[in-house]
Design a protein that fits this description.
The complex is a heterodimer of chains A (234) and B (385). With 234 residues, chain A is an alpha/beta fold. Helices cover 30% and strands 26% of the residues of chain A. In chain A, the strands form two sheets. In chain A, strands 3, 6, 7, 8, 9, 10 and 11 form a seven-stranded mixed sheet that branches. In chain A, strands 2-1-4-5 form a four-stranded antiparallel sheet, with helices on one face. Chain B is an alpha+beta fold and 385 residues long. Chain B is built from eleven helices and twelve strands. Chain A binds chain B through residues 50, 53-54, 57, 59-60, 85-86, 88-90, 93-94, 96-98, 100, 102-105, 109, 112-114, 116-118, 121-127, 130, 145, 161, 173-174, 177, and chain B through 2-8, 10, 13-14, 16-18, 296-297, 300-307, 310, 379-380, 382-383, 385.
């Protein structure tokens, strides 16, 4: 039986403002992302990439269309879930351009905090955090504060935090923008590893041409509309 | 080996991350709260000192001039021989005439203000509880001073035109204005009050053709009653004489507390309110600034799914921690330094507990601005580079 998409978007539109000031950020966008795939979203500034990421992340409410996440219809002309933060906590992991580690927590605490927010005991959260840091090869830096980490290490910790609650979807906003090509490649290898081994759908917004060949599929956005996808690796 | 973990308290972690700034802020706030505590302590000390003198008199009824509320509220003058009349009333165990006057005395090159109490030997109103030396035993030129005046036993002090020897010391007896109390005999006090310099005496003699008025006056007659005699009833009986008024000890204390101390109480209350308002504004601004500094972290927390109560908890806990640490530091500061205050500072646990409660409420109010700001932070702002 064919696998169902984890992210299933149909005819999503989003505009800001009304009348002459109206800006159509997304126009009738449809998108499927399957488990175990790494998908890229690219496009010029203002094309709607971040808006689409915010919609998939349940941060921004679209104006029309429907969206199903991991089989659950969460938007159909309106939000169908009240607890959107709970939804994010359960199903979505976020990776940021500037890693966004909490500066007052050390590496393992930054990972554990996501698990604690989801209701795990402190001991369970710490155990899970150490397991993820080990999985991503940064366990030795578990007690380091964010200010003491290199860019690559900080991004790995951020990836570990995104995976803390075993999300089915990982949304990454320019995760390699602040890294050199070697470290950028290493981060993409990690995201590929996460997608393959955990059957997670990874969606990456990027401008970074040097990692375009790392995606299973790249979607291009222009003026809020989706252009034909570019299949990459098989 | 099982992993053990402690809960990640975001508020405490953030405080630890900015420990220096947080402690410096607490230090500044502790000085403010310390001053608030000192104000309350000074007020308590004021009451205790003022009532101390009234209580030390050991009277149950104060007989004073008619239509007055006694020497602590207004001028009260009675003929000295009225004491015998009062003492002869049924139910009286002892009665003593007393006078009160403020005097400036020179002592070791410094001017000292004193409240001089004139009292009769072995009668109500004489110096109570002499902690060093002995009570006054001679009818002339002996004094019992409070330690706060700084006189030593055996020391000679000049009051008016006479010199007195300090024969005993009391402790903690000062007037409501903070002046130490000095006891002398009523006869000496009357002489001190009415004695004129030779030139003034000659002028007064010429003016009155030598018929000087009596100097045997007192400000009040203190009465101790026999067991079982009702003080209120006795006071009512005395007040039937139109030229006399009488207050029970409770009434006298109320007069002092309400009339004499009331203005000080209102002043201190006003300052305390102002300081608490300033503290609220300071805590509010600091918590707001700390929240603004954490905008990105708060947006990230919201984005990954932290509920609002967790964000509110982060801010409120920091405000409460700031208030608690500052209050404890302020209280410790005032406790350590209370001996250096020119007035007596009495820190009562109930006052400290009440103020601590007020500080916690102030912290909650002050954190409102920070909480409002935090709740308005858009989680999407975490994604903006």
């Amino acid at each position: 039986m064919a696998e169902l998409p984890i992210v299933e978007i149909r005819g999503i539109s989003k505009h800001f403002g009304e009348g002459p000031a109206r800006v159509d950020a997304l126009r009738d966008v449809s998108l499927d992302v399957f488990p175990g795939t790494v998908v890229g979203l690219r496009g010029p500034s203002g094309s709607g990439k971040s808006t689409l990421l915010n919609v998939i992340g349940c941060i921004l409410e679209p104006n029309s269309g429907s969206m199903r996440l991991n089989g659950e219809l969460v938007y159909d002309g309106k939000w169908l879930r009240v607890d959107l933060r709970g939804l994010r906590l359960e199903k979505i992991g976020f990776i940021f351009q500037a890693h966004n580690l909490l500066p007052f927590l050390n590496a393992w605490e930054n990972v554990a905090v996501a698990r604690i927010l989801a209701g795990a005991s402190p001991a369970q959260a710490k155990s899970r955090a150490l397991e993820l840091l080990s999985y991503l090869g940064v366990e030795r830096r578990k007690d380091a504060m964010p200010g003491e980490l290199s860019g690559g290490e900080a991004q790995r910790i951020a990836i570990a935090r995104a995976l803390a609650n075993d999300p089915r979807i990982v949304l990454a906003d320019e995760p390699t923008a602040a890294l050199d090509s070697q470290r950028a490649g290493a981060v993409m290898d990690l995201l590929r590893k996460v997608a393959t081994e955990r059957r997670t759908a990874v969606i990456v917004v990027t401008h970074d041409e040097k990692i375009f060949d790392r995606f299973d599929r790249i979607y291009s956005l222009r003026d809020g509309a989706m252009e034909a996808p570019h299949p990459q690796a098989a | 080996m099982p992993v053990t973990g402690r809960d990640v308290n975001l508020a405490l972690k953030d405080i630890r991350h900015n420990l220096g700034r947080f402690l410096l802020t607490c230090l500044g706030l502790s000085l403010l709260l310390g001053i608030v505590l000192a104000m309350v302590g000074i007020y308590r000390g004021l009451i205790l000192e003022s009532l101390g003198l009234v209580r030390a008199a050991g009277a149950q009824v104060w007989v004073v001039e008619g239509d007055t509320r006694g020497p602590f509220a207004e001028a009260s003058r009675l003929p000295g021989d009225m004491r015998r009349v009062v003492a002869a009333q049924w139910g009286v165990a002892a009665a003593g005439g007393v006078s009160y006057q403020n005097v400036e005395a020179q002592h070791r090159g410094r001017t000292r203000r004193l409240l001089v109490v004139g009292a009769q030997i072995a009668r109500p109103g004489e110096a109570p509880l002499v902690v060093e030396g002995r009570p006054i035993q001679r009818s002339r030129y002996e004094a019992v001073s409070d330690r706060a005046a700084g006189f030593a036993l055996g020391e000679q002090i000049k009051l008016g035109r006479d010199t007195f020897t300090v024969v005993g010391l009391t402790e903690g007896l000062v007037a409501s204005g903070g002046d130490p109390v000095l006891f002398i005999t009523l006869r000496d006090a009357q002489k001190l009050q009415f004695d004129l310099t030779p030139a003034a005496a000659r002028r007064e003699a010429a003016r009155t053709s030598g018929a000087a008025g009596t100097t045997d006056t007192v400000n009040a007659i203190l009465v101790q009653l026999l067991p079982g005699v009702d003080a209120k009833r006795f006071a009512q009986d005395i007040a039937r004489w139109k030229h006399l008024a009488a207050l029970t000890q409770d009434e006298q204390e109320t007069v002092l507390a309400r009339s004499v101390i009331d203005r000080a109480r209102r002043q201190i209350g006003l300052f305390t309110s102002l300081l608490l308002t300033v503290s609220t504004v300071i805590i509010g601004l600091i918590i707001y600034t700390m929240t603004i500094d954490k905008k990105k972290s708060i947006a990230t927390l919201k984005l990954i799914g932290a509920p609002d109560r967790r964000i509110v908890g982060l801010i409120v806990q920091q405000a409460l921690a700031m208030g608690t640490i500052s209050f404890v530091a302020g209280a410790a500061l005032i406790n350590a330094g209370q001996g250096y205050f020119p007035r007596r500072v009495v820190l009562e646990p109930a006052d400290a507990a009440t103020l601590f409660g007020v500080v916690l409420v102030v912290c909650l109010l002050a954190s409102a601005l920070g909480v409002r700001t935090a709740l308005k932070i858009d989680p999407a702002s975490a994604l903006a580079g």
